[in-house]
């Protein structure tokens, strides 16, 4: 272990190094490129080390502060929502739990104003800071069960609280484990699975890694309940065909790969609604602004995509989960740009093989090669003309648990988890006191 004096001795060295960098006087000396490069890396390393040390101290101080004032963090069942767009997943569960007479504390990493749907009267709402400070708060929550949609518990900033008995994750999109980062679900006690593909993926990864088996519940997608309910209340399609363009964001987004000219070519033959991914506004602001200024198209930025989907005859997307929502909720066709996704850094590297969802949905979520982007209007026309919904319902029932009723199922499963954990705690206390 280092002597305490070592840390103090480093401080003058750091100050001297920084002073040399910012001091403007001329130096009549020659430093060869190799030495200069080495010096640069040494100074950079010191500065970066200082940054991360201070960041770590800040995080530990915040965590300690929240561990001291735990009164506001104590509850029976905690539900954590990191972004407003995931409310559509939690609201059906919250309503159903409230109807079952279960006490809930709803922790959101954003404030809820009048524009949000009111919560049931008995639900306690607490708005916590976003980012690192908010997770420091959550890492000291005291609850029997904590439910979230956030993956990678105990991998990144989101850590287990010593005062939470059971962590469960509910899925907010139809998917498979191959497209999530490593250990996304591994350190949860249970997963409320959207369908059999994810369940089989998780079981396989547990076996490969030799990890303890989790409780895997056949739940479904609660947000599909909400979308289906809204879709049934909206007017039917009318007028000329409408194409909804709603891709993902980042490196695999159509807009990142092909720019925006293809949108103009589609608008020459169809009415077009463009829905940029909400994350683009944060991570790709210039591209987002370019999309907002597209001539001759409607740009939709509503909190949920249901309204835009209801008005579209066909969807054009890429790897975004909206493809499954559009197909299964509205029973309409989708065209996806079939770009090969590298599995490096994702669970697909461990699982191997190709997407099972893609294979099973290819009749109504039709893949088109990226080289065909110049002819994309023709592909849309062809898919729209040949679409038949006869197979879609059959496939949907094999891929999604409890379609249209997942919120109430999730609530029953969460209540079951809560009662089991509560019962085990009481049994343990009785044994200790005996």
Describe the structure.
This protein has 434 residues and is an alpha/beta fold. The protein has three domains: 4-65; 71-221 and 404-433, Glycogen Phosphorylase B (Rossmann fold, 3-Layer(aba) Sandwich), CATH 3.40.50; 237-399, Glycogen Phosphorylase B (Rossmann fold), CATH 3.40.50. It has 17 helices and 13 strands. Strands 3-2-1-4-5-6-7 form a seven-stranded parallel sheet. Strands 10-9-8-11-12-13 form a six-stranded parallel sheet, with helices on both faces. Strand 6, helix 5 (196-209) and strand 7 (215-218) form a beta-alpha-beta unit. Helix 6 packs antiparallel against helix 17 (406-433).
Fold blueprint:
Blueprint: H1 4-22, H2 33-68, E1 77-81, H3 87-99, E2 104-108, E3 124-127, H4 131-138, E4 143-148, E5 164-170, E6 190-193, H5 196-209, E7 215-218, H6 222-233, E8 242-245, H7 254-258, H8 261-267, E9 271-274, H9 278-283, H10 285-292, E10 298-299, H11 306-310, E11 314-317, H12 322-330, E12 334-337, H13 348-351, H14 356-360, E13 365-368, H15 376-386, H16 392-399, H17 406-433
Parallel strand pairs: 1-2, 1-4, 2-3, 4-5, 5-6, 6-7, 8-9, 8-11, 9-10, 11-12, 12-13
Helix pairs in contact: 2-4, 3-6, 3-17, 6-17
């Amino acid at each position: 272990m280092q002597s305490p004096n070592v840390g103090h001795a480093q401080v003058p060295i750091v100050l001297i190094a920084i002073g040399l960098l910012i001091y403007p006087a001329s130096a009549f000396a020659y430093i060869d490129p190799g030495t200069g490069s080495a010096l640069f890396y040494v100074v950079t390393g010191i500065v970066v080390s200082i940054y991360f040390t201070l960041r770590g101290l800040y995080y530990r101080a915040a965590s300690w502060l929240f561990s001291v004032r735990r009164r506001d963090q104590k509850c029976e069942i905690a539900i954590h929502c990191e972004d407003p767009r995931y409310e559509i997943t939690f609201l059906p569960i919250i309503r159903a739990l409230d109807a079952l007479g279960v006490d809930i504390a709803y922790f959101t990493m954003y404030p809820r104003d009048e524009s949000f749907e009111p919560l049931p009267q008995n639900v306690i709402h607490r708005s916590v800071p976003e980012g690192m400070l908010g997770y420091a708060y959550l890492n000291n929550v005291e609850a029997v069960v904590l439910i979230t949609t956030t993956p990678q518990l105990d991998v990144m900033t989101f850590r287990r609280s010593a005062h939470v008995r059971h962590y469960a994750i509910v899925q907010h999109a139809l998917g498979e484990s191959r497209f999530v980062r490593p250990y996304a679900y591994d350190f949860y006690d249970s997963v409320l699975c959207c369908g059999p593909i994810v369940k089989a993926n998780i079981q396989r990864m547990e076996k490969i890694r030799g990890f303890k088996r989790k409780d895997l519940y056949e739940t479904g997608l609660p947000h599909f309940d909400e979308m289906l309910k809204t879709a049934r209340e909206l007017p039917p399609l009318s007028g000329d065909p409408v194409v909804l363009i709603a891709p993902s964001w980042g490196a695999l987004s159509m807009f990142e790969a092909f720019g925006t000219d293809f949108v103009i070519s589609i608008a020459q033959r169809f009415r077009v609604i463009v829905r940029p991914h909400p994350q683009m506004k944060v991570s790709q602001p210039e591209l987002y602004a370019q999309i907002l200024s597209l001539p001759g198209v409607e740009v939709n930025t509503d909190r949920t995509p249901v309204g835009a989907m209801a008005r579209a005859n066909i969807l054009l997307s890429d790897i975004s989960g909206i493809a499954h929502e559009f197909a299964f909720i509205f029973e309409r066709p989708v065209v996806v740009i079939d770009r090969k996704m590298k599995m490096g850094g994702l669970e697909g590297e461990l699982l191997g093989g190709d997407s099972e969802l893609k294979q099973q949905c290819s009749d109504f979520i039709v893949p088109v090669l990226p080289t065909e982007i110049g002819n994309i209007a023709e592909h849309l026309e062809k898919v729209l003309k040949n679409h038949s919904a006869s197979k879609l319902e059959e496939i949907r029932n094999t891929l999604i648990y409890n379609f249209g009723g997942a919120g109430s199922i999730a609530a029953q499963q969460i209540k079951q988890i809560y009662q089991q954990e509560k019962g085990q705690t009481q049994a343990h206390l009785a044994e200790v006191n005996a």
